[in-house]
Amino acid sequence: MYLLWCLLFLHVSAQHDRRKQPAKEGSVRLVGDLDSSGRVEVYHDGQWGSVCDDGWDLAEAEVVCRQMGFPGAISAISGGTYGEGSGPIWLDDMKCEGSESSLSDCSFNGWAVTDCTHKEDAGVVCEAELNLTNKSKNLSVNVSQICHPYVSAFLRYFYTRQIEVSITSAQCLHQLAFIFGVKKLMEDVGKVFTLLIPQDNTFRTQVSMYEYAVRTGDFVLQENVLQYLSWNGEFLISSPVWSSVSFHMMDALLQRSDLIVKDEALLLKALERWIQDKGDEINSEQQTGLLNHIRFLLIPVDELYEIQFSSSALQKNHEKLYLTGLLKGFQFNALPFSKIRNKMGNMSNEYLPRIYTRDEWSIFINVTTFKHPNLGQNNRLQTFSTPAHTSTFYREQKVQWRAQVFLTAHECSNNGISCRSFPVARFLADGNQNRYKSSIRFSNRLILGCKNENNVFHVQDFKTDIAVIPANSSMALPNPCPDNYSFRFVVRPEFI
To answer: Where would I find the SRCR domain in this sequence (predicted)?
Structure first.
């Protein structure tokens, strides 16, 4: 093992030295603590200068990383994250295809033509390469060059089992464990990855982490990342990262019932946009596979009606698929489930809802503070009504709901329940739902996020109308705002 680390250190150092070549026109460098990440600077007219983050995306990051000899980019960083430069701002409004050999080959406004300040200096995180071979596995794979700054930390891990990690150092350690079959270390680092998942609200890190988990065959890490992205599906769809999601990742996301979106129609539109953006990258058979994951039966009937008037090229290419989905959707909305159950065949998840958050099906409670629980009690009680089911057949049959958050034992006892930890959420129906208990069950969900942030880090169901929020140590993901929750109560009716 000691020899392994020595070889690792020498190999990485050699790569590090090879990258320190004399600057020439159009050269790029990264300014930061690591060779593989930092503020991007480009050499022009005998001087190093920075790049504005306007138009800065993964395609531009890919060009920079490959130009520097790395195999690819993990993420594009904006907003002066790696500190502000002091020289000129050479490039602005970058438009790269991703295949250019150098950053200066991309489209931009012109040298030093910019309206930016250094607070907008762009950066990248590159996925660097180190080739090691494990002869016992007959395996040659890549390990991040970012291992170089962490060699002493890795050695300390083997002696103390303690290590300070970031996403980049964890990835290096995980790859080494994967290559050399140190399963326990791989599992431990996988847990660390899970703890780091919520840190990036742009979703770039999570998407990259999923692809990395696929390459290394870490199914637990794949599931943890997919669960987080599913819980944050509403925000992922509207983020710039959406268009960069791979086919196999999209396929996995669309099969999940824990995907949180406003409604199924919005998901269909997002998928259509993604397919259009991918162009020739996604063939007709792959398009069909993805569209078959859309649950047409659960699209709101008014939006289902509008779909038939769409004249998009995608719909024309898959006309039969859309027509079949529309027909089944209208039937599902017009008839009682008992009428069509026997003729539905093997529909798997087609009629099972995801977690739909449109106002008709959810209510939001923003808990401003836990330090003064007696303040704002009325703000922690909301009532609203929903149809008995998403099907239009039940639209006029209403169920009344009462959503409430308790922060003290006194509040719980006043409402006839006993609480041992806090906060506690209760979601009650007025009893009307009992009329449908032979055909409909309510698998309601509580969505936990941080106040005023686009981030969901916990989702749970209700047991006998109660959801006790677990301690931070027992949550699947770490709680980034333990004293400042927001709650969304979601009604999920399912035919049985």
So the answer is: 28-127
